[in-house]
Amino acid sequence: MNKLKIHLTILMLSLACTAQAQRIITAGSSSTEIVCELGLCDKIVATDRTSLYPPQMQSLPSIGYRTSITAEGIISLEPDVMILEKDYVNDVVLNQLKNAGQKVLVVENNSNLEDTKVRIRQIAEILNKKPEGEALIQRMETELTSLTKKVAQANTTPKVLCVYARGAGNLQVAGNDTGFMIIEMAGTQNAVPEISGYKPLNAEALINANPDYLLFMASGLESLGGINGVLKIPGVPQTTAGKKMQIIAIDGVKLTNWGPRLAEAALEIFEKTH
Questions:
Q1: Residue ranges per domain, the chain?
Q2: Which CATH number fits the domain 154-273, given the four candidates 3.30.1490.10, 3.40.50.720, 3.40.50.1980, 2.60.40.640?
Q3: Is the previous residue joined to 54 through a cis bond, with omega within 30 degrees of 0?
Q4: Mean pLDDT, to the nearest integer, of 204-227?
């Protein structure tokens, strides 16, 4: 009898460990996309305001945005597991969730390929989707290898200035240590390598950088009124990008979240700059 109980206990524990989550909450667009790529999009019951892709995520209940996210709001949705990108939920809320016995995975959201792979593996493990996680990584590596070959065959390495825009009154240059640095995988170079993070855009620095291309998030370009609006920014008409009207835009989430569409975003930049 005791042996039977032991075997049953082991079996129950094994089933508990391999059971897939039925109610997932995510915070961070990269993590949301990873969960979907692992085949569990339909198990996401709520997500944060940055998770705009796949489009059906926009119809789910929102837990808010960063500092507005509360433990009570999350717990009320009765998730099996929460996957949160670092700094998307403050420490007080995180501790409240853990103290309430919630299953929480916090992943790094650094903008580099190796961290993207780590993030995929961590999420795949907690969701019991390890094979799917490795398959996703393999697919991305294959896509990037193909892109690397195209970059090697290119004759130019154009300078790109990445601009974060929220209307003409909020213009910032994106430097190193930002999601925009995906441009380096696309056979282009950062026009302002001396800058880290985000800095206010000014005409003098813009003219001195003299980028071949200006890169915006699609929503940012729209907030300026399109290419004609960009050409009104002081300094832009004096640059190569302005003179040749080489002003490009890519979906902001795909461009900067370093998720499963990483290679797709880099390829799009390559094709628009070569």
A1: 20-140, 154-273
A2: 3.40.50.1980
A3: yes
A4: 97
